[in-house]
Design a protein that fits this description.
The structure is a homodimer.
Chain A (H helix, E strand, L loop, with lengths): L5 E2 L9 H7 L9 H18 L6 E5 L3 H10 L7 E6 L2 H12 L3 E6 L8 H10 L4 E5 L1 E2 L4 E2 L2 H10 L3 E5 L18 E3 L13 E5 L1 H5 L11 H8 L10 H17 L1 H21 L15 E5 L6 H12 L1 E2 L1 E2 L8 E5 L7 H17 L3 H5 L1 H13 L1
Parallel strand pairs in A: 1-12, 3-4, 3-5, 5-8, 8-9
Antiparallel strand pairs in A: 2-10, 6-7, 9-10, 11-14, 13-14
Chain lengths: ~375, ~375
């Protein structure tokens, strides 16, 4: 039996008992009438959670969030397409690479890691050249930064470009409305805000995106073939029944909680964590208005071996947090509070565990302020 | 709760309670030390089940068998590559399409659906032109046909080509040895012979294939990035823990049973089914030496509504069998006996259920021979 971890890293997030039970239902084949009814239900729920408009197509790719990213790119990118890609971290960079692999000419808007993209930078780029596609990561999981997707999409749409948005670490946890925000293609994953295991990538294409769809070079990720399966029940691939059940159940849970309550819960627990960390003398990488509620990029204090802290949290408390990626390796921890993991108990437990580990490693601020971190978190959560 | 089906279609095959229990273990993240140990164990087990040689790389793609097919193609196909593709059914045709999407020039060896490819046809093609790659489906799931992969791979290797083999419906159920048979790239899926749910695609590249690897246009299926993750523990995608657990457990079950015992079991139950069907006056599409042990293509008798038979088996017995694909739609049923589903009890239950349904629909042969189908099956199984 594998160990029970408290998953407070950059994903996967904790999977509730209810979702685990759904996962373990009897396996149906990909063409069973019951399976087709479940997929119909999922399409409706995905339309709802994305806030998709009339004529949109929402479904889930049989793969992780990265396959969702590649499916988004593969179905709208002609060789030679002009793409403006906002890069504020590791996943923005990956998105730019993906477009290049599909033959696009990519102009990058590179922003310092840890900061959001100012929409005026996009505005200037759009006035200087014509782009087919503007792409941006909503919640940059590598830096804990929220990009102003609504403003960027408005500018892109006004300039006649399609907007492609990565919502891997925001869907189901932070405000996102594809139709209202004029987002054309948006993808996510199953294991962050939704709280299912990884392995499926929810995806939506607006009517406008469907009208500009291009032949996909990928067969596995070809939206026309996927639509044949999801909508017209024609075999394309053998969808994974347990993952479908888990995602369907997680969408039902989101619907029961209500999207806005869910967003509030994520906000509240993020603010509690930030307040507690501040008392411990720790700071978050992005400035307050640019912070995600789902993923907290915590600066590693001077003189502390960051890998040892992660190892001790795992060994002594079975708590997983994440390391920094790329230029942030060794400089930040990534602490996720997503889906079922975003609870006040998890905030308090994590602060207590972190304080103990740090203080035993000789970290001074932690030792002197140990009792008030939890109090500060509790007080932030009830305000 | 979804219905409990007896999955006797072209896949997925039944998932045992043991594999379901493994699936439901606590979710580990993709970089947890315990997960990395599981992946190391899986690589060893995959090397073993494929019969991979020194210097091979075996891992599993995070997607269905179709993603395995695309990964195989994406990592060895340069634009302009000359590919000889044997097409004996729907999946051979899909394989040819996949190579074309990745820019290859594909010469097809088209064989009548329901028959295997004679190696001499490949031999002639190889002597007439130079090919970089020879591709063939081992177990053609659409027609129930076994192709002589060992002979074809020997010819391809002698001609200097890489051999790409689809083992979706043979791995773990029918003889297949990649090193001994000089197969360079071989992929399969989790939900047929292995008996796990769908969602992962075991894949192996020989040392020779690795030496001829080309830059992958797909990011998600890029073998170099996948190797970075599986071997060097560098993040590429968030592997699905439940699927990993299920595949690992199914590989452990195969190892415990023993590959040769497992092959014998599949052969015995296939022969029992064929004997029983014969007594019912039903015939299989391929001639005996070309038949799969995993998937039986049963000709629909004259005057019988094939869809109604499938629907009644599902509604009255909760037994799933498959329909024909492409030119075989309406002309065959596809009856799978794979993995945990290949048992003598399933053969007897299926024959009994089919006979009842057919006889109630006025099928004459079934009514007259009802008691001896089961006897014939039992007798074939013990011979």
């Amino acid at each position: 039996m594998t160990s029970e971890r408290l998953l407070l890293g950059p994903g996967p997030s904790p999977v509730s008992a209810r979702v685990m039970r759904a996962l373990a239902q009897p396996v149906l084949s990909h063409l069973d009438p019951e399976m087709m009814a479940i997929l119909d239900d999922m399409r409706r729920r995905l339309d709802w959670i994305f806030g998709a408009g009339e004529g949109a197509l929402s479904l889930a790719i049989s793969g992780t969030g990265t396959s969702g990213m590649e499916a988004a790119v593969a179905n709208v990118t002609k060789p030679g397409a002009q793409v403006l890609c906002v890069v504020t971290g590791y996943f923005g960079d990956r998105l730019a690479q993906m477009f290049e692999r599909y033959g696009a000419t990519v102009a990058r808007v590179d922003i310092e890691w840890g900061r959001a993209c100012d929409p005026s930078v996009v505005e200037r780029a759009l006035s200087a050249a014509q782009y087919d596609i503007v792409a941006v990561v909503h919640a940059e999981t590598s830096t804990g930064v929220l990009n102003p997707v609504q403003e960027i999409a408005r500018l892109a749409t006004a300039a006649g470009a399609l907007t492609v948005v990565d919502a891997v670490t925001s869907l189901g946890a932070m405000p996102l409305r594809t139709e209202d925000w004029t987002i054309d293609v948006c993808y996510s994953c199953s294991q962050q805000g939704l709280g299912a295991p990884s392995g499926m990538a929810p995806l939506t294409f607006s009517a406008r995106a469907l009208a500009r769809k291009v032949p996909s070079r990928s067969f596995y990720l070809d939206l026309s073939l996927l639509e044949d399966y999801w909508v017209r029940r024609k075999y394309h691939h053998t969808i994974s029944a347990p993952l479908v059940y888990a995602v369907q159940e997680s969408l039902a849970i989101v619907e029961e909680e209500g999207l806005e309550s869910r967003w509030s819960r994520h906000r509240r627990n993020h603010l509690a964590l930030a307040a507690g960390l501040e008392v411990l003398g720790l700071s978050l990488l992005p400035p307050p208005p640019e912070r995600l509620w789902t993923l907290n990029a915590v600066r590693v204090p001077e003189g502390i071996d960051e890998a040892q802290v992660r190892r001790r949290l795992l060994d002594e408390f079975s708590i997983e947090i994440g390391a920094g990626l790329g230029p942030l390796a060794g400089r930040i921890w990534r602490v996720g509070l997503m889906g079922a993991g975003s609870t006040s108990s998890n905030v308090l437990l994590f602060l207590t565990a972190l304080e103990r580990v740090l203080s035993s490693m000789g970290y001074r601020r932690a030792a002197s302020a140990s009792s008030s971190a939890v109090t500060a978190a509790e007080s932030a959560a009830t305000n």
